[in-house]
Amino acid sequence: MKKLCYDSATSDKKNYMKGDSIMRSKENPARMLWQLFKATFLLSAFTFGGGFVIVSLMKKKFVEELKWLEEEEMLDITAIAQSSPGPIPINASVILGYRMCGVIGSLVAILGTSLPPMIIISVISVFYAQFRSNHVIAIALQVMRAGVAAVIFDVVLNLAKKVVDTRRVLYIMLMVTAFVGKVLLGMDAMVVILCCLVVGLLDLVFELRSSRRKAVA
Amino acid sequence: MGILNQLFLAFIQVGMFSVGGGYAAIPLIQSQIVDIHGLMTLAEFTDLITIAEMTPGPISINSATFVGMRLGGIPGVLLCTLGCIIPSFCICLALAHFYYKYRNFSGVQTVLSALRPAVVALIASAGLSILLLGVFQSDLGGIVLSNFRWIEAVIFVGALFILRKFHPSAIAVIFGSGVVGTAAYLLLGLA
Prior knowledge:
The structure holds two protein chains of two kinds.
Chain A: H1 14-17, H2 29-45, H3 51-65, H4 71-83, H5 88-126, H6 128-133, H7 135-165, H8 169-183, H9 189-216
Helix pairs in contact in A: 2-3, 2-5, 3-4, 3-7, 4-5
Chain B: H1 3-17, H2 22-36, H3 42-54, H4 59-102, H5 106-135, H6 150-166, H7 170-187
Helix pairs in contact in B: 1-2, 1-4, 2-4, 3-4, 6-7
């Protein structure tokens, strides 16, 4: 069988530098595609709430459980997914699938992410009136939010610890400011990311300058 | 123009112009479906949003499916969802390609490193709003202490403790909290 898929455990990072965007691996691609489909399908079927919710679940699944991705990579994917048009979970699936198995992986991940809502909503739209007035369903949906919140906070604690561990005041400040800006000042997520992009570019300019000065000295 | 064509084109536009996730798509869907094409009444649209929020999955896919099912049956569902996805697919595939091509250059790393703390903060804020919705049934501005729901609060603390201690899968935790919480409500007769 053709070796299509990426396997992060055996990856050789240097190949990225040669411009090879997707790594080939020894793992059976059919098995990997199936795992990709299963994971995205289940995540999508159990995720209530907006895009960042599913992204934190993806992080838990693909970084912590399956160890397919690095943590920084998942954060980059999130930033890209947030900044592109379209639903965040779909955007994230496209990038994730592409990373794992190229364009086919993208298509499989999209299918996994979009099938559960399609099936669930199709059924609900037929039994619309009964669904809306069912008390037990309303309670179950309400209490599940507490569980979802717990999962997100678990992921956030891990991620925030990583940011603090860099011991760079700039990054810690960025994290705190972004949180305050989003929660207390009601800034748009897009604006927050754009502001940090500007900070990152400035940081790059300073970095290049100081390294040039060092080279001259 | 047939209704299926109209739906498909409407949702391509929704997919293309909704930057910033689920809630950004709602006004776009409203303008396409209710205002421009008159395919639904505003009351129906409000119901649609309620259902889309109550059920799992991205809001725009949920609404695309709901609108498609009501106006065009299964073909409607497929076309609306496809319309919603196509722009995402093309744009993100291109971005993914460039990201994996250039991400190891140190300059790109410096810029991306500044974005990561922001993403952590954004995820935290999403977690906070869903927690408040669960425990107080409102957002940060609208908290009323008498609305405090201790069952949800206990489930949140318990679930977080279990997650930190035993690292179970996310889906097990969400499903478990649904079962435990519903049972608690029914047994205590609070329902």
